[in-house]
Design goal:
The protein has 429 residues and is of the alpha/beta class. The chain is built from 15 helices and 10 strands. The strands form 2 sheets. Strands 3, 4, 5, 6, 7, 8, 9 and 10 form an 8-stranded mixed sheet that branches. Strands 1-2 form a two-stranded antiparallel ribbon.
């Protein structure tokens, strides 16, 4: 409120309102910031480039305050792919923004912030008392010092990649929106994402239980299924297995796909949409399972769309709000410690959501994991260069409809519907 009061007086010098009166007239919808409302999924590329541009602006080198202003000064149109990819001939004179470098400040040192990931040695102890070191990756907000000329050079070097990055984001959301609006009766879009593991709890806990480490957790695999005609179905699979690898992903997806097959037998094409972590979705194991599991269930065509790095947030993250409803139930009194004790979402909320429970009571998840591990041969090779080519929406749909090979996977990346088509692991069932 103090900063807001000072800003108000600067913008309205004729109004000499006191700080007490300013606080008294505060609208009810203006509330103090909460720790739960802070941004925790910011993009590393955006943040690091923003820190550099802000430092140049604070030093009086450029009038541009935001990365978007810098990009707008260097290209003809932000929505033009040729401009953003550096292939436009009209943008050659606008490659670098005008910067006011003062000769008197040459070689002056400036300090700016940057998110950095480094390897840190950690010492651990064995049961016999001996110790050993392991390396762990740690991400911290560090401060860097460099000369003004070097900082300008860093901005110039990062600018082409940043232009491609922001174009991929906007174009991808546009293509995904187009795909959802043009779905046929034989197509569906399944947008999936892993939620943060949920810590189980009791409505009433003793002190030893409340402060005890290592509480039981359950994994939540959330998703939204889009069908033709604007139909939307939400789901969330719950499991006591907290693994998030490719085999666990397909163990979560199997009951969802079976339910889709039973309720909508006319659907034969699946468009998966997810973010691109290599530990979960974008790896050779998931590629192989994608090229086999859906076809064994009767589906004819499968595509997988990966979002741009650090910009995979979407509708599945709204399904995570279900865990707050469970917290409200704990406060009401009943004990729901194990995840299989939690009632379905349809019983807790009027919203059109369903829970496909993959607990050991209903579906033996550990058997599913073993089954999927046995399905993946050890000779599966890495997929390299699968995120470089692009296809038009019309070309992609023509290729998908003409496929005759049973076990085929189409891996899409960067721009949804308009990037790469890659056929992997062709074989007979």
């Amino acid at each position: 409120m103090t900063c807001l009061h000072k800003k108000f007086l600067q913008d309205h010098p004729d109004n000499t309102i006191s700080f007490a009166q300013f606080c008294k007239l505060r609208p009810f919808w203006i509330t103090a910031p909460k720790s739960s409302e802070r941004e925790t999924c910011a993009c590393k590329i955006h943040e690091n480039f923003k820190f550099k541009v802000m430092k140049l602006h604070q030093s009086g080198i450029t009038p541009m305050k935001t990365p978007t202003d810098v990009v707008a000064r260097t290209v003809c149109a932000i929505s033009n792919k040729l401009c953003m990819y550096g292939q436009c001939t009209d943008c050659t004179q606008k490659k670098k923004p005008d910067l006011n470098l003062d000769p008197s400040t040459k070689n002056n040192t400036v300090t700016f912030e940057e998110w950095m990931t480094r390897t840190v040695p950690i010492t651990r102890k064995n049961q016999d008392g001996s110790s050993y070191e392991v390396e762990m990756r740690s991400t911290v907000l560090d401060k860097r010092s460099t000369t003004i000329e070097k900082l300008v050079e860093m901005v110039y070097d990062d600018l082409p990649k940043f232009c491609i990055h922001i174009y991929n984001i906007s174009h991808q959301f546009e293509r995904l929106h187009y795909l959802k609006n043009t779905l046929t009766n034989a197509e569906t879009v399944i947008h999936i994402d892993y939620s943060e593991n949920y810590a189980c709890k009791y409505a009433t806990e003793i002190q030893d239980m409340h402060f005890a480490p290592g509480k039981q957790q359950v994994s939540l695999h959330t998703g939204v299924r889009y069908l033709s005609g604007g139909r939307v179905e939400c789901f969330c699979s719950v499991s006591s297995c907290v693994r998030h690898d490719a085999c666990a992903t397909w163990a979560h997806l199997e009951p969802v796909l079976k339910k889709l097959r039973d309720e909508h037998p006319e659907v034969n094409t699946i468009h998966f949409m997810s973010d691109g972590p290599t530990s979960q979705y974008r790896n050779k194991t998931n590629f192989y399972l994608t090229s086999s599991v859906p076809f064994l269930m009767g589906f004819q065509h499968v595509t997988w769309n990966f979002s741009e790095a650090s910009h995979g947030k979407g509708a599945p993250d709204g399904i995570e709000k279900e865990q707050f409803e469970v917290d409200a139930m704990y406060s009401a009194g009943p004990h729901y410690h194990a995840h299989h004790h939690c009632p379905p979402v349809s019983e807790r909320s009027p919203r059109d959501s369903q829970v496909c429970q993959t607990s050991p009571l209903d579906i033996p998840l550990h058997l599913f994991l073993s089954d999927y591990r046995r399905r993946v041969p050890c000779c599966v090779t890495d997929v390299r260069g699968s995120l470089t080519k692009m296809l038009s929406a019309e070309c992609l749909r023509d290729v998908v409809q003409d496929m005759t090979v049973a076990m085929t996977v189409c891996i899409l990346s960067k721009c949804s519907i308009q990037p790469l088509l890659c056929l992997l692991y062709l074989s007979e069932i």
